[in-house]
Amino acid sequence: MEHAGHNAALSDLRRRIVGLDRSARAKRSALAFGIEGIDNHLPWRGLPLGTLHEFAESGLESEHVAAATLFIGGCLARTKGTILWCLRGRDLFAPALASVGLHPDRVIYVETWKDAEVLPAMEEALRHGGLAGVVGEVAHLSLVASRRLQLAAESSGVPAFALRRWHTDAERASASEPNAAFTRWRIAPAPSPPPPVPGLARARWRVDLLRCRGAEPHSWIVEACDAKGRLALPAVLPDRPDRAPRPAAAQGGGGGRPLPVAADGDRGPRRVAAARRRGG
Amino acid sequence: MTAARDGSRRLVAAADEAALAIGLRPGQTIAHAQASVPGLVVVEAEPEADLLALGELARWCGRYSPVVQADPPDGVLIDIAGSSHLFGGETGAVRDLLRRVRRSGYSAHASLADTPGAAWAVARFGGGGIVPTGGAAKAVAPLPVAALRLEGETCRALALLGVERVGQLAALPRAQLTRRFVRTLFERYERVTGLAPDPLAPIVPREAPCVRRAFPEPLGHLDALAAALERLTGELCRELERRGEGLRLLDTILRRVDGQPVSLRVGASLPTRDPAHCVRLVGERLQTVDPGFGIDEMALLAARVEPLRARQEEAVATLEAETRDAAALAPLVDRLGVRLGTERVFRAAPVESRVPERSVKRVPALAPVTGISWPEALPRPSRIIDPPEEVRATALLPDYPPKSFVWRRVRYNVASADGPERVHGEWWISDAKMAELRDYYRVEDEKGRRFWLFRNAPTPEGTRWWLHGRFT
């Protein structure tokens, strides 16, 4: 009897907590990747709208974040409406976004050079609503800043994408700091298969889900976005990791130092040999 | 000289002094003119642009008198009565006007007379000059009848009667001629000689809407200023609503106690008269104002306005989705523009250029959508390294993609490559550009990183390789 009363009180408390938790209250629609494996892994069957997502690259690539840029561009290309993109420099080349399906008419760029400009601009845009997505290139994303962005995104239902760019080792060290992003991703280039004819095959990325509310970390090898922004699974998956890397270890290892070229084991030299045979 | 099309013929529309001097006349056919003068420079006539320029000129003439009328296609009428003494009498005014107009590249004749019609006639047919008071009839008498602004048809009919001069026309019996010709014939004459009134339709300069308020006590606190701003914005927006206009540029002028004015300018990307929006825009800047010992007076001036009523009616009706989106985003774009600078909120638009870094231009964030994108077949990197960084690359053969390269002291071994994509310099700009030649390669290293490298045209020192962008 007493036990049952206890349970009722607990469930009542739980209900009230759920009512307070705004993130759980909103029934989210999500931006699906269109890939069974990734969508099934995520609790919302895609990237939930009205939340903050963080994208980064490791090592030296974190300065240019070229792959993550295309990844976000591809995600947003599958939405409708205008995108606001807060730039942290002048190196984003708009034709590339057009090549993954994000038409130039749909993107409004804001030239913000430092975090102190990027974060307020993102928040303003998220609160304003009416956008299909807000992207900001930031170096530091503290717990407070990310929570502000998350609340702003919740208020309007616009997805927010924080693209982390690090130029110095000190900035890279901030990768492991906690923040309030719903999902944290790391995009890295992956070797593409040798094409049957001289040239380049469709690029491949390694997509690591480092942290996600309600899902385990995982990683996938995918083929890069096509002209409509769609990802694809490679036909054969010989290199698929069977276990996700530990996020902390992976980021610590990648931080700051240039990755030695031969760190890839025996696969690198064999690829080169293969290429040389084709060339000859 | 300029050419205009009249049916199937191309006629000389206007000719400059040099062309007139060698005997070309407006109304000739272009073929005739070109046959008589080899190497003739012919420019297409632009009547709309001419009309706009004439309007500008007329507005400028407002410095002589407040009553000015543009008189298309090629005249400006100025009512100088009562203001000529400011320019040293009538002679001085005419001389000053001609000097200034000619200095800015126009060829001009001026005449001053009792009536606009007489001045018009004397300036065009009488060689200009000042007609003494009461001498209009005498001044126009020796001029051809065309000086009365008659149509060609009427002039020809009068010529058949042997009437060529205005003086002859004046001597004719009026009743019979009025029956034969249009009534306007003698009306024109009466207007020229001052017997009938001939009022001007002067350009009315539009006043910029402005509201101001002087404070009984100097305000030193931002909150008080914000409250005053809110009231003034409300007034201004009501005034704009009455005029059916919306703000594009708003100047806020604050006068401090020490006499120093502080002015803030904010712009709106689409015309607006929403007080809350204006207050937010100015409020962003108001925080940067140093009130000093206090602010005496605040004035809001709508520096540029555009008609807004039509658009609002449109919004109610079915409106294209893009326009509606732009209207919804305008407040956001304005706020970001005020905070960061208008030129830093933009959209990228394609430019037809072969040089990759020149294929993008910035357009205003809410410029009308064009639907034009870049050609899809060209692979372009997502991040461009500008200016390109030189890399040390080794290729097996001069025409091959590099086997490996060193960039920023890190060696990358190339696994596979695609290319070359040859980009020529824009030879139509200069000869030096013609020599600029780049061969672009997309290369992938053994870890899957993709780079965008290019090789210069071979020079005596050897080929140089540059890294211009990254795909991943």
UniProtKB/TrEMBL annotation, chain B:
Gene Ontology biological process terms in this record:
DNA repair
Q: Does DNA damage count among this protein's keywords?
A: yes
Which chemical reaction does it catalyze?
DNA(n) + a 2'-deoxyribonucleoside 5'-triphosphate = DNA(n+1) + diphosphate
Question: What GO molecular function annotations does the UniProt record carry, in alphabetical order?
Answer: damaged DNA binding
Cofactor section: Mg(2+)
According to the entry, every stretch annotated as the UmuC domain falls at: 8-122
Q: Which residues form the DNA polymerase Y-family little finger domain?
A: 211-305
**Which InterPro entries does the entry link to?**
DNA/RNA_pol_sf (IPR043502), DNA_pol_Y-fam_little_finger (IPR017961), SulA_CellDiv_inhibitor (IPR050356), UmuC (IPR001126)
**What's a Pfam family this protein contains?**
IMS_C
User: Any idea which UniProt keywords this protein has?
Assistant: DNA damage
EC number(s) reported in the record:
2.7.7.7
EC primary class: transferase
Q: Mark the transmembrane ranges.
A: none
Q: How does it assemble?
A: Monomer.
Its annotated function is as follows: Poorly processive, error-prone DNA polymerase involved in untargeted mutagenesis. Copies undamaged DNA at stalled replication forks, which arise in vivo from mismatched or misaligned primer ends. These misaligned primers can be extended by PolIV. Exhibits no 3'-5' exonuclease (proofreading) activity. May be involved in translesional synthesis, in conjunction with the beta clamp from PolIII.
Mind telling me what this protein is named?
DNA-directed DNA polymerase
Q: Which organism is it from?
A: Enterovirga aerilata
Task: Recall the taxonomic lineage recorded for the source organism.
Answer: Bacteria, Pseudomonadati, Pseudomonadota, Alphaproteobacteria, Hyphomicrobiales
